[in-house]
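Retro notes, item 3 of 5
We never archived the inputs for the 6-sulfanyluridine-5'-phosphate complex last cycle. Fixing that now. Sequence and ligand:
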Amino acid sequence: ERLIKTFELRADAAVHPLVRSLLGIVTSKRSNLCVSADVSSCTELLTLAQQVGPHICLLKTHVDTLPDFSDSVAQQLRSVAQQHNFLLFEDSKFVDIGATVARQWERRGAWADIVTVVPIAGDGLLTAIAQAALDNSKKGVILVAEMSSDGALRSAEYQEMCRAAAKRFPHLVMGFVSQSSISQSPWLLQLSPGVSVSASGDALGQRYVSPECSVGERGADVIIVGRGVTTSSDPAAAAANYQQLAYSAYLERVKR
Ligand code: S5P
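Structure as it came back at the time:
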């Protein structure tokens, strides 16, 4: 059901206001591309955000890999996001007891619109984030349900845990990071990394499929592209290319 519904219809059915906002951005910009800004400094991060801004719906970060990340950088990033109309997505992969995640969220999650969570520890960490976020309608969580790399856990029981957590926290969870359809619920999103137009993998176990395969066959709503964009000599042009390929694949999918 999720796969054949248009983003417009799914935005109407959305439970989480941020899902509605994100799908609004996706349809107005005709972009279901998230660029993963895996760079080495905040200057590079802000430059990349400006370059790819017009082509993305989401910018994903790992701020723990940036030695110079600060509140001021977060603020500058927020203003670039406002200027180009995209949301900020910190790939925190929180996985701990609630009390610890509450502290981690304050430090490296609170600045972003959306964070990632690995929900193997029970409901405590989701409760912690729901309590810490002053306004739940402005903060979202994506559950990492299935990973792109070689040897990743493929467990029906874990995927069921993810679905159940999404059900228990409908006002916090926006969807999943996964390589396949975790849920048919049209109000939940599938974000899929491991996408490249040129590479099939890297030397450390990453595995890639094309944007067409990710969206058309594996059910991604939004593709996540890192090095396919960041290592290009022209990141804006590379992002525009992924944007076009992923959005066309989505249009094809809902036509069926
Ligand atoms: O299963 C996953 C989940 C994630 S969030 N596989 C991934 O690769 N990621 C992230 O997506 C990873 O941490 C990296 O930031 C990005 C993929 O980067 P790329 O350079 O391989 O496109």
